[in-house]
Design brief:
Blueprint: H1 6-14, E1 30-34, E2 37-40, E3 45-48, H2 51-54, H3 63-73, H4 86-98, E4 106-110, H5 113-134, E5 152-156, H6 165-169, E6 187-190, H7 206-220, E7 227-232, E8 235-236, E9 242-243, H8 248-259, E10 262-267, E11 290-293, E12 304-308, H9 310-314, H10 331-346, H11 349-370, E13 374-380, E14 383-391, E15 396-397, H12 409-421, E16 423-424, E17 431-434, H13 442-463
Parallel strand pairs: 3-16, 5-6, 5-7, 7-10, 10-11
Antiparallel strand pairs: 1-2, 2-3, 4-12, 8-9, 11-12, 13-14, 14-15, 14-17
Helix pairs in contact: 3-10, 4-10, 7-8, 11-13, 12-13
The structure holds pyridoxal-5'-phosphate.
Length: 465
C-alpha cells in the first residue's frame, strides 16, 4: 500500500464531503490532470466518465483556457461591477448573442448553479411585480389577486436545481426533503415528461396529456394572477438524463405565453455543448425568457450565468434588480468562459459532437440489446444513460423515490469500472452515466463501452439472466 500524502490526509480530516456521512472519506490524491484523464500520485491513470460532474466539457487543462486564465491573472483577477473588464463585458455580450432570442439580453453572473437558479426565481417574481404595479396591471382577469403579485413557481418532479434553500425548494428530488418543511413558499410541482416512464398517457398522447395537466395546474394555482414562471431542465440531469419528448418544450412555451408566465430553462448541466448544441433548448427551437448556465461555463472556475431575455431585462431598466452577491462578473472566470466558448464555437469542438454522439449511441444500443438488465438507453449529444431495471420482464425500477437508498446494481458496476478498469463514474440510483468530456476520442468511446459490456455481463450472470 502506498503512503497517503499529507494533503490528502488533511483533506480527509478537515474537509466536509458533499452529500456524504464523513467517516471513511478518502479522497484520491491527484498529481495532474489532462484531457479525459486524472493521474493519481500512486501512478493510476483514471478516465473521467462524468466529466467532473459535467464541469469539464473541454477536458481537463485545455491549453487555450489555461493560457487565457494566465493572461487574465497578469492583469485583473477581479473588480466589482462598478468597474468594467474586457472578459466580463465580452462574455456578457457573447452570451446575449449566442443564446436563443434577441441579442438585447442581460446576464447576471454568480458562482454556482444554485445561486443562478435563485437569481432566476427572484427576477421572475420581481418581473411580475413590476408588470402588475407599474406596467399596466393584470393581463387576464382570471383569479382574484389577494397577494399583490404573481409569485408561484411551477417546477417539476424529478428535477434538481441545487442545494441552497430556494434552489432545493424548486427541486423535485428527495434531496429537497432534507430541508422540509422549511422550504421556500410558493412552489408547485408538475409531472416530469419521461417517454420511458410517462406519468401520463402513452405513446402519441403522452405529451398532450402531460401539457393538459400542466395547463390544469396553472389554472388551479390562480393563472396569471398567481403564477410567475415555469422552470424546466430541457434534459433532466441528476434525476436520470431524461430528454424532453418532442413537442413538450414547445407546449410549455405555448402555455407560458397563453398565461403570461415566464419560461425558465435550467441548462446548468446541459449547456456548453453537452448535448451537441451550445444549449439543449436549441434542439426544440424554443426561446425561453430566462436561461441558467453553470458548471462547464466557467471552464475550471466557478462561474454561472442567469441570462434574461430583452423583455425581462427591460423590466429592470427603471426598477431595482433586488439581488446580488460578492464576486459577480469575476474577470478570471469570465476569461475562462470566453476561451471555452471559442474552443466550442470557433475552433469547432461543438461540430465534432454529432459524430461522436452517433458512435456512442450506436454502441450503447447494442449493449442494451445484449443485456437484459438494461431497461432503457437515452440521451442527447454526449449526455447518455443506461437505465437498469430490477425486473426485465416488467421494467420495474431499481429503486423508487421513497425507498431508502441502498447500493444497487449501478453501484456494483461503478465499483467494477473504477477498481478493475480505471473508469470513474460516480454511481447514481438508477443508471450508468455515460458523460465523457467532449474531447473524447472514438477509440476511447469503444474502450469504455467494452468495459461497460464486461460489467453488465457480470451483473447478468450473477442475476441468472
Ligand atoms: C440542472 C441543475 N441546476 C442546478 C444545479 C446546481 O448547481 P451547483 O451545484 O453548481 O450549485 C445542478 C447541479 O447538479 C443541476 O444539475
Amino acid at each position: 500500500m502506498s503512503q497517503v500524502p499529507e494533503f490528502a490526509a488533511n483533506q480527509a480530516r478537515h474537509m466536509m464531503q458533499c452529500w456524504s456521512s464523513q467517516e471513511g472519506y478518502a479522497p484520491i490524491p491527484v498529481e495532474r490532470v489532462e484531457g479525459c484523464w486524472i493521474h493519481t500520485t500512486d501512478g493510476r491513470r483514471i478516465f473521467d466518465l462524468r466529466s467532473a460532474h459535467e464541469c469539464i466539457n473541454l477536458g481537463f487543462n485545455h491549453p487555450k483556457v489555461l493560457a487565457a486564465l494566465k493572461r487574465q491573472l497578469d492583469t485583473v483577477a477581479y473588480v466589482t461591477d462598478d468597474f468594467a473588464t474586457e472578459p466580463t463585458g465580452q462574455l456578457a455580450r457573447r452570451l446575449a448573442e449566442l443564446t436563443p432570442g434577441s441579442p438585447d439580453k442581460k446576464v447576471y453572473f454568480a458562482q454556482s448553479g444554485a445561486a443562478a437558479v435563485e437569481a432566476a426565481i427572484k427576477a421572475a417574481r420581481q418581473f411580475q411585480y413590476h408588470r402588475m404595479f407599474h406596467e399596466g396591471g393584470l393581463t387576464q382577469s382570471d383569479a382574484p389577486s389577494q397577494y399583490p403579485y404573481p409569485y408561484k413557481i411551477i417546477s417539476r418532479y424529478k428535477s434538481w436545481h441545487g442545494s441552497t434553500s430556494g434552489a432545493a425548494s424548486v427541486s423535485g428530488d428527495p434531496r429537497r426533503w432534507f430541508q422540509e418543511p422549511l422550504t421556500v413558499p410558493g412552489v408547485v410541482f408538475a409531472p416530469e415528461a419521461n417517454a420511458y416512464r410517462p406519468p401520463f398517457g402513452d405513446g402519441e398522447t403522452m405529451v398532450e396529456e402531460n401539457l393538459n395537466y400542466l395547463d390544469y395546474i396553472i389554472e388551479n394555482e390562480g393563472g396569471s394572477n398567481k403564477v410567475a414562471a415555469v422552470l424546466v431542465e430541457p434534459v433532466v440531469g441528476s434525476n436520470g438524463i431524461i430528454p424532453a419528448p418532442p413537442g413538450y418544450l414547445e407546449g410549455v412555451r405555448r402555455l407560458c405565453d397563453q398565461w403570461g408566465l415566464l419560461m425558465i430553462v435550467d441548462e446548468t448541466m446541459t449547456g456548453m455543448g453537452r448535448t451537441g448544441k451550445l444549449l439543449a433548448i436549441e434542439h426544440s427551437g424554443v426561446e425561453p425568457d430566462i436561461i441558467i448556465m453553470g458548471k462547464a461555463l466557467g471552464a475550471y472556475c466557478p462561474l454561472t450565468a442567469t441570462i434574461f431575455s430583452s423583455k425581462v431585462a427591460r423590466s429592470f431598466d427603471h426598477h431595482l434588480f433586488g439581488h446580488g452577491q460578492s464576486y459577480s462578473g469575476h474577470a478570471l472566470g469570465c476569461a475562462g468562459a470566453l476561451a471555452a466558448l471559442e474552443v466550442l464555437v470557433e475552433d469547432g469542438l461543438l461540430d465534432e459532437v454529432a459524430a461522436k454522439s452517433r458512435h456512442l449511441e450506436n454502441r450503447l444500443r447494442k449493449l442494451a440489446a445484449k443485456h437484459p438488465c438494461v431497461g432503457d438507453v437515452r440521451g442527447l449529444g454526449l449526455f447518455f444513460t443506461l437505465e437498469l431495471v430490477a425486473d426485465p420482464a416488467t421494467g420495474r425500477p431499481l429503486r423508487k423515490t421513497t425507498e431508502k437508498y441502498e447500493p444497487t446494481l449501478v453501484h456494483e458496476i461503478a465499483q467494477f469500472l473504477f477498481h478493475e478498469r480505471d473508469i470513474y463514474v460516480p454511481s447514481d440510483k438508477f443508471g450508468i452515466w455515460v458523460v465523457p468530456p467532449l474531447v473524447v476520442q472514438l477509440s476511447e468511446i469503444d474502450w469504455f463501452c467494452d468495459a461497460i459490456d464486461e460489467a453488465l455481463t457480470r451483473v447478468d450472470r450473477r442475476l441468472g439472466l
